[in-house]
């Protein structure tokens, strides 16, 4: 304790943490990932435009969307195990190279005036699978490049990055597609190359290696000898068990899975509405860009919510708001109205995403970040693949109006479930039990700037 002028004592204080830009590795990770996300968004949207505008088949568009999102179901769990085993920086580099090569094959095929739905679906699957690995590795790496006390700020900044990239990437993809079908894909190749160059300079600490005991030997895993890894099925089960034992956490994830399925249906339905109205493909990009602006602001809001509002309250407010907004898509089909609706829904979605990611990263042990993150993504994003596939066939069978009405009804049900679940007796206690443990000092890296070097620690008087 520090002595005060009146003979009393003052409480201990910590140094005020510098801005995130003070961390060199965080800057490189943020920039490289921004380029990677930009490339993925640009080509991902072009897949849908390519199929809808060149074949006119809603079911084929749904099939390609399903292929792009299927890795969220098939790859998430083994990817989580492997990300915890492998060097995370190396995983990100391989993923960037793999996606760059896959997307380049589409650009070359279209430049030669060749279009095959199976080829587009295959590339969409490969890009989606490698994106799963990349996202898990990147999220786990964040914890190693910023102090634990700045995780919420870092997650909010990353989410804002993704939303801002959407704001640029979606309209750019539509505009480039309007010039020539191959241009969005070649642009993605260039951005993947820039991302690779940036991430090569990253020097993030490799914390996936097993810790050594006092004798310098690696600790034994369950059911294995020293230095041996457990079977992948056991590692996957460990991640599933960790999530399943937290009733509050898993309930929130299941409800979010349902809402993500609805939003996937909404995105494809709006693209069909725009095409059927005779408007240019770039209109879809502009509507999505409006949503990205809302998402960018929502990411900022989410950083505040994660510190001030319990997750149970965030879930209730978000789903009730979505249930009130979504019926507007049934009535209003003008691009300006649809853009406004996407702005609102994306603003809410980004806030919930930041709050949820911050919560998950804080409460998860570092050596399980990949596995737990994969379970989270499996539940939250895996449903999106089924939404894309089912929506394509439903649109062919019933039309956009009926699909949008059905989506609105399902969202109202989810809002009612969230309200009942998170206002029940004991919900507040569950929220308190999920408070993050105090950050370990060994996980708080030194801050290196051009003027001075600060060690993040308590200062005793």
What is the arithmetic mean of pLDDT? Answer: 76
Cα separation of the termini: 6 Å
Structural class: mainly alpha
DSSP summary, beta strand count: 6
How would you sum up the global shape?
globular
Provide the spatial order of strands within the biggest beta sheet. 1-2
Give the total of domains.
2
The name of the CATH topology of the largest domain is Growth Hormone, Chain: A
CATH homolog superfamily of the largest domain:
MFS general substrate transporter like domains
Integer-rounded radius of gyration: 23 Å
**Total of helices:** 17
CATH architecture of the largest domain: Up-down Bundle
Q: Name the poorly predicted regions.
A: 210-227, 435-461
String of helices and strands: EEEHHHHHHHHHHHHHHHHHEEE
As a percent range, the share of strand residues is under 5%
Q: How is this structure best described in words?
A:
This protein is mainly α and 461 residues long. It has two domains: 22-205, Growth Hormone, Chain: A, CATH 1.20.1250; 233-434, Growth Hormone, Chain: A. The protein has 17 helices and six strands. It has helices at 24-55, 58-69, 71-74, 76-85, 88-111, 117-145, 151-179, 183-200, 232-244, 247-276, 282-308, 311-325, 328-331, 335-363, 369-398, 400-422, 427-433, and strands at 2-3, 9-10, 13-14, 447-448, 453-454, 458-459. A two-stranded antiparallel sheet has the order 1-2. The chain has a two-stranded antiparallel sheet with strand order 3-6. Strands 4-5 form a two-stranded antiparallel sheet. β4 (447-448) and β5 (453-454) form a beta hairpin. 52% of the residues are buried.
């Amino acid at each position: 304790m520090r002595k005060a002028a009146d003979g009393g004592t003052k409480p201990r204080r910590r140094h005020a943490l510098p801005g995130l830009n003070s961390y060199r590795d965080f800057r490189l990770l943020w920039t490289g990932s921004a380029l990677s996300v930009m490339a993925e968004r640009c080509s991902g949207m072009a897949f849908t435009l390519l199929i809808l505008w060149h074949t006119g088949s809603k079911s084929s568009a749904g099939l390609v969307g399903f292929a792009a999102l299927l890795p969220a179901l098939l790859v998430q769990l083994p990817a989580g195990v492997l990300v915890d085993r492998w060097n995370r920086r190396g995983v990100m580099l391989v993923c960037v190279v793999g996606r760059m090569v896959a997307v380049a094959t589409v650009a070359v095929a279209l430049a030669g005036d060749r279009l095959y739905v199976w080829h587009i679906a295959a590339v969409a699957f490969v890009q989606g699978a490698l994106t799963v690995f990349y996202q898990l590795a990147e999220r786990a790496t964040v914890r190693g490049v910023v102090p634990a006390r700045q995780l919420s700020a870092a997650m909010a900044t990353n989410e804002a990055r993704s939303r801002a990239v959407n704001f640029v990437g979606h309209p750019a993809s539509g505009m480039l597609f309007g010039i020539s079908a191959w241009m969005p894909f070649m642009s993605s190749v260039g951005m993947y190359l820039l991302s690779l160059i940036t991430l090569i300079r990253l020097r993030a600490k490799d914390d996936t290696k097993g810790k050594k005991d006092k004798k310098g030997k690696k600790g034994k895993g369950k059911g294995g000898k020293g230095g041996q890894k457990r079977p992948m099925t056991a590692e996957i089960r460990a991640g599933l068990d960790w999530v399943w034992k937290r009733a509050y956490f898993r309930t929130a994830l299941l409800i979010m899975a349902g809402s993500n399925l609805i939003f996937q249906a909404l995105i494809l339905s709006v693209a069909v509405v725009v095409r059927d109205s005779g408007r240019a493909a770039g209109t879809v990009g502009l509507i999505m860009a409006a949503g990205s602006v809302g998402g960018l602001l929502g990411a900022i809001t989410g950083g505040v919510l994660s510190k001030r509002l319990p997750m149970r309250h965030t879930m209730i407010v978000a789903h009730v708001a979505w249930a009130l907004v979504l019926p507007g898509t049934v009535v209003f089909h003008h691009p300006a109205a649809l853009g406004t609706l996407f702005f609102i829904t994306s603003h809410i979605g980004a806030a919930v995403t930041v709050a949820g990611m911050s919560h998950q990263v804080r409460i998860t042990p570092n050596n399980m970040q990949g596995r737990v993150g994969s379970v989270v993504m499996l539940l939250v994003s895996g449903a999106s693949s089924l939404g894309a596939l089912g929506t394509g066939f439903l649109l062919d069978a019933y039309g956009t109006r009926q699909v949008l009405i059905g989506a609105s009804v399902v969202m109202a049900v989810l809002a009612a479930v969230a309200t009942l679940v998170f206002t029940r007796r004991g919900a507040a206690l569950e929220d308190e039990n999920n408070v993050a443990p105090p950050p370990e000092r060994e996980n708080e890296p030194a801050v290196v700037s051009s003027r001075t070097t600060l060690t993040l620690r308590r200062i005793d008087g």
